[in-house]
Amino acid sequence: MTFTRRVVSGSAQLTIGNGLVRLISIVTMPILTDWLSPESYGVAALAGTIVSIGSVIALAGIDTVYLRVYHSTQPPSGSSAEHFCWRFSVLNSLVAAMLSGIAWHFLSGHSVDPAHYLAILVAAGTLFSVLCTMSQLRALLDGRHRTLAIVTVVTGALAAMASIGIAVWERGVLALLLPMLLGYLLPLLLLGAPRVADLSRPSRLSWGEGWELVKIGLAGVITAPMYWLLTSSDRWFLERFHGVNAVGVYSVGYSVSMVGMMIIGPVMAVWQPESAREYEADQVRARVTVGKLMSRLIALMGIIWLAVTAAGGDVVRWFANERFHAAAEYVPYIAGAVFFYGVLRLATTGLFMAKELKWAAFWWLIGGIVCMLLNFTLVPTLGGKGAAITQSISFGLITVGVFASAQSRFRVDLNWPRLAPVMLALFVAGIYLSPAWHRSAPVSLLMKLPVGIALAVGVAWVMAPDWCARGIYLLRRRALP
Hints:
Layout: H1 3-35, H2 38-59, H3 62-69, H4 78-107, H5 109-112, H6 118-141, H7 145-169, H8 174-191, H9 196-199, H10 207-216, H11 219-231, H12 233-242, H13 244-257, H14 261-281, H15 283-319, H16 331-347, H17 349-354, H18 358-382, H19 384-409, H20 416-433, H21 441-463, H22 465-479
Helix pairs in contact: 1-7, 1-14, 1-15, 2-4, 2-6, 2-11, 2-12, 2-13, 3-4, 4-6, 6-8, 7-8, 11-18, 12-13, 12-18, 12-19, 13-15, 13-16, 14-15, 14-16, 15-16, 15-20, 15-21, 16-19, 18-19, 20-21, 21-22
C-alpha cells in the first residue's frame, strides 16, 4: 500500500469514529446544558486544564520519540525503544499525577472547589490520560486503525451515557469529570499495554542510547507547557477577570469549535508514523509524496475551518441552552486556532524528519509569550472573545515560524500555485458565512449548506483533480455495471 493510501485509509477510519463521538456529544448537549449550570462546566474546564498540563509535562515529548523511532532503520528502534518509552511515561505520569492533585488543591480556591475533593479526580485523570495516550500510539504503530476507531466510538458512547446517568443523580461537576476519567481508562483497557512484568524490568538500552532518545523529545519539555499555555491558560484568565460562569460558557463554544479535530486529529495520528516510514524508505521520493499530500491536507483543513465557522454559531444557538448562546461568537476564532494547529503539525514534519525539533520549541516559546501578553490585554475587556482571538493569533504565529524553519531543513514540494488562491477564497467565504443568515438556527444552516457544498467541491477539483476523477469513475462503474 502506498504512503497516500495508508494515510487516507487510516485517517478515514479514525475520522468516522471521531465523527460518531462528536455527534453523540452534540445530541447530548441540549440535555446536559439544560441540567448543568455554566458554573459546573466552568469547574470541569478548569480541572481539565490541570489534567492537560500534567499530562503533557509527564510525556515530555516521549510520545513523539515513540512515533519517530519505532519504525526507524537505525537503532534503537522497535521493541527496545518501545519498552524505554513506556517505562519513561509510566514513571513520569505517577509523579505528574501527584503534582497535578497538589496544584489543583492550591489553585482552585474556595469558590471553585470548596472541599478540594476534586484533587483526587484531577490526579487520576492525569495518570490515566498519559497511559491512554501511550496505548493509542501503540495501536497506531501496529496499524490497528479500525480497532482504535471502534474503541473510540464505544468509549464516547459509554462516557455520554455515564454523564447523563450521573447528572440524573447529581447535577454538578461530577457529571462531567467522572465520564472524563472513564474516557481515559476504557481505551487503555480495550487497546492494551505492555505487560506490567515486562515494564518492571530495566530497559535494554544503554544510558547513551536512552539519552539519545530523550534528546529527540527534549523539545517537548518546552512545547508541552506552551501547548497548555495556548489552549488552556485562557480559562484561568477568564475565571480571574469574569468568574467561573464565563469559563463555562466559553467551554461550550470551545467544544463546538473543536469539531474540526475529529478529522485533523486522526489525520495527524496517522500522518506522523507514516511520513516517518516514507522518509526512511526513500528521502528523495518523500519530498514529492509528502509535499503533494500535505498541500491537499492543508486545503482540507481550510474546508474544515469554513464548515465549523459557518455552522458552529448556529449549532450553539440550536442545541445549547440559551444561557450558553454567547459562545456562538467565539467559534470562528477558536476554529481558526484549530486550523493553524493542524497546519502546524503538518509543517513540523520537516523538523520531525531531520530530528531538529529544537526549532519547534523555539517558535512555541515565542508563541507562548505572545499568548500571555494577548490574554493580559484582551481577556479583561473582551472576555471569551478576547481569549478566542488570542488562541488564533498565537497558533498562527507559531505555524508561520515552524513552517519556515521546517522548509529550510527538509523542504517538501508544496503546490503553492493552487494552494494559495484556494486558501484566500476560503477565508473570504468564511467572513460571509460566519454570521447567522436567519433568526432560526436550522433555517440558517439550510441556507448556508448549498454554498458550503459548492465551495468544498470546487476546492476538491482544484487541489485533487485525480482523486475527483477517480471517484467519478468508481461511481459510474457502480451505477452502470
